[in-house]
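#lab-general

N.A. 3:47 PM
ok so I finally got the sequence cleaned up, no stray characters, all 361 residues accounted for. can someone with queue access submit it? mine expired

B.Y. 3:52 PM
send it over

N.A. 3:53 PM
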Amino acid sequence: MMKKWTTLDWMKKLAVLILIFLNCWFLLKLFPYILHGLDYTIRLLTPFLIACLIAYLLHPLIEGLRKQGMPRPLAILVIYLLFFGTVIVGCIKGAPIVVEELTSFAKQGPHLQEMYENNVNHIYNATAAFPETLHDYFDRALASLENGLSRLVGRIMLWLQGLFKSIFTILLIPFIVFYLLKDFMGVKEWLNRHVPSRIRDSSRALAMEIDASLGSYIRGQLFVCLVVAVVSIIGLWILRMPYALLLGIFIGMTDIIPYFGPVIGAVPALLVAVTLSMKKVIFVLLLILIVQFLEGNIFSPLIVGKSVHIHPIFIMLALVIGGDIAGVVGMLLAVPIFVILRVFIIHLIRYRKKIDNEQET
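B.Y. 4:20 PM
back already:
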């Protein structure tokens, strides 16, 4: 027999709905302040997050040396000095060249823009026989590309300004990394003690699965980006392209984004080539195609291998969702987050099956 709803029941339901509506309304009103607070928190925690990532990447090397018989403190010291020594030497040697190229690019900006417009007009006149609809589409695509590049350059300049302003924060990172590496095992033991005993074994297995799936992927992908950047810089230098170091570094950095990264990285190099000649455009395009062929068929299979068994469709879906939510940052984090969620869901299903089997027996 169905329960008959009284006026009091209806009033309770109405009160709950009003409370839900008010909570949503307050949340929407507070949303800008929440975003501001999240932005401040992320900026505050950035050096610690970077330090955690570096420590996570270096820890397997330290464990490898320890297994070879080297005492752990000495292994930490060796890897720490090698990593930060390489970074410091690279900054000392590379920073003046990067600054020089940035300064030259800023000074040559109007001249490059004029050369770019002349070459684009030459292409436009050469295709005058094409349908007007195609010309209109070309104009819109070109304007969209120029606006996107202008926004990208503006963001990079703002990021560089923020980087120089937060130099003290950056100097904290090596110290944080050292203490994280030194107390890495202590942190693991602390986490182990504070995890409830009934899920301790399952949590440990989950962490090991995430590390196995994600750790090798991140380390391998970063190394692939480094190789791509070096090969691109050498290739652009051989082609006598201006700003070869900047363009090569950008190609390597964007290569961390699967599928979409190579397209993003190719745009600045091709736009600079357009200011020179169509011959340069063809050579730069061939170079980028060769680099991407090497990356897809040699570098990635050898270095990254099959560390992440994900179908390309799911990777592209994750990239589209990440890009829609948080732009380039979302695309950078899309695959790692997808890997973690996938491992977590598989582990949760396996854990539930184990509990159900134990209950049945």
